[in-house]
Amino acid sequence: MKDGNERVYKITTDRIEPDALFGWSLKPHHGAVVTFAGTVRDNTDGRRTLRLEYETYAEMAEAKMREVGVEIRDKWGIEDVAMIHRVGTLEIGEISILISVAAPHRKNAFEACSYAIDRVKQIVPVWKKEIWADGKREWVERQS
Amino acid sequence: MRIIVKCFAGCKDAVGATSVSVELPAGTTVGEAFAGLIESYPALGGYDRSVMLAVNRQYADRQAVLEDGDELACIPPVSGGAGPQ
Predict the structure, then answer these.
(1) A63 lies within 8 A of chain B by CB
(2) I want to staple B14 with a disulfide (CB 3.0 to 4.6 A). Which of A55, A113, B43, B54 is the partner?
(3) What ipTM was predicted for this assembly?
């Protein structure tokens, strides 16, 4: 998954550790690494969630994550972006997505990381199903 | 011509399968193919406005013309990895 510019874009079923991407993005000329971790929340608007099940169109998802990396390079000149998205069954508090952006200065790194998660949620084909505590199971679908 | 349709999340539930093979006349567009799927699987109708369609793993316009062997994917609005919208 690592390409010539040290970027990594990966779908995995394995547990994601919070520092998994730190070493992928950091270089000696950087002064900032911004990492975003999306985690499984135990409720939505007060309704209790037991766990989430994630599904993906894997062949397309990694290509679309890579595309987000290209957009970031074009907008901010930032080369060092890495992201991992976990699929399968995730328990409360586990990390579903980890994004790491490293840059010489923090402002661009914060902006680019925020942009990255927004774009992932728009174009990367990953879906989550809520397994509610009341026994119901529902796909979470953003109405566009 | 024959294409493969891949279905995900709610679209998969509507069709009852992760993929189906469909026979179509030459020149069929992406939009026409999806309309045909709604006829076969009425529960897909709820996705007519919100679904994104991809051909061979690239998002495609409904006007795009399909070719034999294409992989058409029905992609409900994606929810991504984290947090509320």
Answers:
(1) yes
(2) B43
(3) 0.85
